Amino acid sequence: MHGSASWRGVLPGEFSINAAGTTKIVGSAQRITRDGWLFSTIIQVSDSASIRAVLTRAYVDIGYDLDPSTIGSIEDYRSGVTSEAVQTALIEAYGAGAVRAPLSQSILQSLSTGSP
Predict the structure, then answer these.
(1) Measured in whole angstroms, how far is the alpha carbon of residue 93 from the centre of its chain?
(2) Is 17 helix (H, G, I), strand (E, B) or coil?
(3) Is residue 14 one of the residues assigned to a domain?
(4) What are phi and psi of 24, to 5 degrees?
(5) Backbone dihedral region for residue 47 (phi beyond 0: left; psi -120 to 50: alpha; all else: beta)
(6) Which of 58, 59, 95, 107 could bridge 64 with an S-S bond, Cβ 3.0-4.6 Å?
(7) Residue 1, domain member (yes or no)
(8) What is the pLDDT of residues 74-100, one digit of tens each?
(9) CA dihedral (82, 46, 17, 102) positive or negative
(10) Residue 37 maps to a domain
(11) Residue 115 CA, distance from chain mean position
(12) Which domain holds residue 20?
């Protein structure tokens, strides 16, 4: 997101990236258990209407307030951006520290069966 107006923490989520100070386009989640930890990041590249519809419905169902205008994607601010372009930009930004590797078959199998 070089050259765009974005920063962390404007909307709920200390490690969010928000475009124009109003729209979350990158969010993170952290979980810690006795046996391990997870830190994940979601980058919404395109199709903000779909994620907005799902989240709006989910928030209504659980009784939470939500301003749908705070849900967006990079494409909302950079027309025509692709997932591949975002991936390339991230790899370039992280340089030699970036690792691109597929998940192992054993991990994929455990995910599909739900067994450890």
Answers:
(1) 17
(2) strand
(3) yes
(4) -75, 125
(5) left
(6) 59
(7) no
(8) 999 999 999 999 988 888 887 767 666
(9) negative
(10) yes
(11) 26
(12) 6-113
Report the CATH number at residue 99.
3.30.930.10
Distance of alpha carbon 90 from alpha carbon 41, whole angstroms: 12
The DSSP call for residue 79 is: T
**Closest alpha carbon to 32 in 20, 41, 24, 40:** 40
Alpha helix (H) residue ranges in 1-116? 48-62, 83-94, 105-113
Give 25-55 as a DSSP string.
Answer: EEEEEEEEETTEEEEEEEE--S-HHHHHHHH
The token pair that represents 44 in the structure block: 């919404």
The pTM for the full model equals 0.67
Give the chain's domain count.
1
pLDDT in tens, 59-77: 999 998 889 999 999 999 9
